[in-house]
TrEMBL record:
All copies of domain WSC, residue ranges: 100-194, 208-304
Pfam families cross-referenced by the UniProt entry: WSC
SMART domains xrefs: WSC (SM00321)
Stretch forming the signal peptide: 1-16
Protein's recorded name: WSC domain-containing protein
Keywords, alphabetical: Repeat, Signal
Amino acid sequence: MHFFVITILSAFSVRASTEICRFVCPSSAAGEELLDESLSDSGAATGCFWFGGPTGGGLAPRSASYDSNGDLIPFSESSNNEGLVRADTFCAGVTDGWDFAQHQVCIKDSVSARILEQDTVMPLPSNSPETCTAACDSQGFTFAGVEFGAECHCGTGFTATIQPVPHVQCNMRCTGNSSEVCGAGDLIQVFQGPNPPRAAQLPTGWSTFSDAPCAQDSAARMFTDTLIAGPLLAGTDTPAACVQFCEGKGFTKAGVEGGDECYCGTEIRAAPQALDPSQCNLPCQGAIGVKCGGDFAIQLYELS
Ligand SMILES: *[C@@H]1O[C@H](CO)[C@@H](O)[C@H](O)[C@H]1NC(C)=O
């Protein structure tokens, strides 16, 4: 029995775990409850709004923001600043390399329209950010989310623009660690890990064109024998989908450009001129978090 338990644990221990924290608004200020919270990319709570509280509505609303060290930047009306304190920290134990997705700690989800793309529920008897990120990591997913205490969701991206809510709303204890929170009803804490997005994973034998992963294209087009598949792939455009399409048509080279264009070919017109990778910066129409070239900048793939 002892060995059995060890085996299960080791299956989820590919990487060590670490604790990640970021600054959030204090859940109360001068007895008033946190009603609104915005968190910035720099790790600071940039907008906090408190109102009401146990003594009723007689108190003035309070608002503040915090710098990247968690120190108070008081609201300019000094009468409102009484009772304001340093930022709180919100922490989670996660698998090494994982972090809060888009720097947010608690976001809206819905049973009828999942926020995680290819939402896959992992059956974990002991759910926590730590066990959930480990499980999703080992299955090759890029995103992991804990919800409703017991639920672990894995995903490949977001299906829509995320809607953060104040961290205090993610208040259900994790079934696998009662000192941590795991979302709430229709509220999820999402983490992002180092696995490459699935939409960017190419079919076997294909790789990025090593001399010029992002190359200058022109109206004359990169390939001498071009087939454009953009309309055929509408809504699912990703490098992987484009490569699959081109392979299916017998081509040995493929390229994505302009966010939603897919080109297939066998012959390159002239040695591709490499561009800085930052020029291939347009998000793919078919996947959040994956790039599909730029303006006359093409990402090239070939079958070896
Ligand atoms: C539970 O969570 C706390 C706080 O993040 C952490 O210190 C502790 O190691 C966790 N316990 C287990 C068993 O993972």
